[in-house]
Amino acid sequence: MDGVRLPADAMLPGVEGLKGPLRCLNEARYGIVWGVMGAARSCFETALSYAKERVQFGKPIGSFQLTQKKLTDMALELNKGTLLAHHLGRMREAGRLRPEHVSVGKLNNTREAITIARTARGILGANGITLEYPIMRHMTNLESVLTYEGTEEVHTLVIGQALTGLRAFD
Ligand SMILES: Cc1cc2nc3c(=O)[nH]c(=O)nc-3n(C[C@H](O)[C@H](O)[C@H](O)COP(=O)(O)OP(=O)(O)OC[C@H]3O[C@@H](n4cnc5c(N)ncnc54)[C@H](O)[C@@H]3O)c2cc1C
Fold it and tell me: What domains can be seen in the chain, in order of their start residue?
């Protein structure tokens, strides 16, 4: 029996070859640039509120300098990543967004979101590993985001190629 034959443009009408699917992937990766910052914001806000309430050594843990440094570093990366997403969005609207720009956003924001989630987990102590708080759920999700839609290594190589003009993979 003959297999089902689909016309060449059945899935993405008007598009030839791999251009269409690759454009879809680029759009999905652009979405990730924002999505991971949402997960990071949830972790940061959970840690901030917990640090102001949890009392140890007679004081909220948010009053200790080490905790404040953690919260400051988290806030810096969260806001930088969100600004990067805004910037890429403006480039996208202007039709100037290239795949390597999306690689910068996907790689940076996923990596920083994981660091933020990990720091937040530490601030919550043992409570950080429970499902009473959203941090472990975000952490495991972010670990898989690091792999899908282009792994950390592959986006690194895409940026490396854009910087050097030399392709490290085929
Ligand atoms: C939750 C989840 C959802 C997914 N959803 C989809 C989906 O909807 N559609 C789909 O098609 N796929 C999907 N994937 C698959 C995903 O795209 C692949 O897992 C990913 O591309 C890596 O492929 P791999 O697992 O075969 O690892 P491998 O290709 O075996 O890579 C293993 C490791 O080696 C590294 N590596 C490979 N080549 C190089 C190199 N040249 N230099 C340095 N390091 C290198 C990789 O970066 C990685 O760290 C999903 C994966 C996950 C985890």
Answer: 20-160 (1.20.140.10)
Cβ(167) to ligand 1 under 6 A? no
Active site residue 149: yes
Question: Distance (Å, rounded) from C-alpha 159 to C-alpha 36?
Answer: 20
3-class state of residue 97 by DSSP? coil
DSSP secondary structure, 141-154, as one string: HHHHHHHSSS-HHH
Cβ(151) – ligand 1 distance below 6 Å = yes
Helix runs in the chain, H state only: 19-53, 65-93, 99-123, 135-147, 152-164
CA distance 42 to 154: 27
Cα separation, 125 vs 150, whole angstroms: 32
Q: How far apart are CA 52 and CA 75, in angstroms?
A: 15
Q: Which atom of ligand 1 is nearest to the CA of 154?
A: 47
Give the number of the atom of ligand 1 that is nearest the alpha carbon of residue 151: 47
Render pLDDT for 113-163 as a digit per residue (tens, 0 to 9): 999 999 999 999 999 999 999 999 999 999 999 999 999 999 999 999 999
Probe residue for ligand 1, chosen from 148, 149, 161, 167 as the CB with the greatest number of ligand atoms within 8 Å: 148
- Closest CA relative to residue 68, chosen from 38, 48, 94: 48
